[in-house]
TrEMBL record:
Keyword Secreted: no
Family: Belongs to the sigma-70 factor family. ECF subfamily.
Organism of derivation: Paenibacillus oralis
Lineage of the organism: Bacteria, Bacillati, Bacillota, Bacilli, Bacillales
Keyword set, alphabetical order: Sigma factor, Transcription, Transcription regulation
Name by which UniProt lists this protein: Sigma-70 family RNA polymerase sigma factor
Molecular function GO terms recorded: DNA binding; sigma factor activity
Coiled-coil intervals: none
Length: 166
């Protein structure tokens, strides 16, 4: 086994929870998430030689996980996002100032291109530049999508709170 393969195996071993959580955030099913992780690892190992910068292993592998997750959703024609349990596991020990149910509902309503940016930025704590690598988009496109996604979430959350008052 080569140096890149060993580096990749160590990366996956050290980050298995984050990788699983990323896949689960898309498919919202433990078995499907495990299948996606397995398929992603297989695809990564078979194309390990395409990685240009071993220091960017996270972005490179997250792109594979995201693409396989989106392919799976297209085939299933279903789109899901984090449930309350996963939201809590993403940031353990912190109290959120929002209602998880409202946020979950609002995230569910976002188109996948906006949901991906929110999940990677706020739940995976990735920088804008890393997200642009993962999603293979221009940095300015990611910034615009993030802004639009946050605006859509704000509008959705405000609409839901108005409905609750009525």
């Amino acid at each position: 086994m080569g140096k890149l393969e060993n580096l990749f195996i160590r990366y996956v071993t050290e980050n298995k929870e984050s990788i699983y959580r990323l896949a689960y955030s898309y498919v919202k099913n433990p078995d499907d998430a495990l299948d996606i992780v397995q398929d992603s690892i297989h695809k990564a190992i078979s194309s390990i030689r395409t990685i240009k910068n071993p220091g960017a292993m996270k972005s490179w592998f997250y792109r594979i996980v995201v693409n396989i997750s989106l392919d799976f959703l297209r085939k299933q024609n279903k789109v899901y996002i984090l449930d309350k349990e996963v939201l809590e596991s993403v940031s353990p020990g912190t109290d959120d100032a929002y209602h998880d149910i409202d946020l979950e509902r609002a995230l569910d309503d976002l188109p996948p291109k906006y949901r991906s940016v929110i999940v990677l930025r706020y739940f995976e704590d990735m920088k804008i530049e890393e997200i642009s690598e993962v999603l293979d988009e221009n940095v300015n496109t990611i910034k615009t999508r993030l802004y639009q996604a946050l605006r859509l979430l704000r509008v959705k959350m405000k609409d839901e709170s108005i409905e609750e008052v009525k």
